[in-house]
Amino acid sequence: MSAFVPLLDMEQAERLPARAREVVEYRKSGLSLNHIQGCPLDCAYCIRHTYGLWDQRQPRALMPDVEAVERLVSHRYFQAHVTPVQLLNRATDPFLPSVRPHTLAVVPEQVPTAPRTTCLPSLGTS
Ligand code: SF4
Predict the structure, then answer these.
(1) The whole model's pTM is what?
(2) % helix / strand / coil in the chain, to the nearest 5?
């Protein structure tokens, strides 16, 4: 098994549902970065039910980690040292064996500029 998740090409990424293509999502509690999506764990409460990704059981990356962080820090609501950041908390588990290297790669990229960073499971209520 690969240590990293496969990267979707542009055509594959464009076929995803609209919300799945929203890699940086504004939430009342901060910004959520979700450039990797897909999960085999089948939690009944998973929010992937709500936007057409339930059948994607294998994690896939929409873009490289560095590009995802660039999207995050250039988001119009991102303020360095102010905006709380949630990582990979919507459509995958950040500590799946194949996802964990991406989680650990992204943290050093943005932690210095984020006051709080969380990696929590996806709950359909946020
Ligand atoms: S993404 Fe999170 S909530 Fe959804 S199935 Fe995986 S671990 Fe469960």
Answers:
(1) 0.86
(2) 30, 15, 55
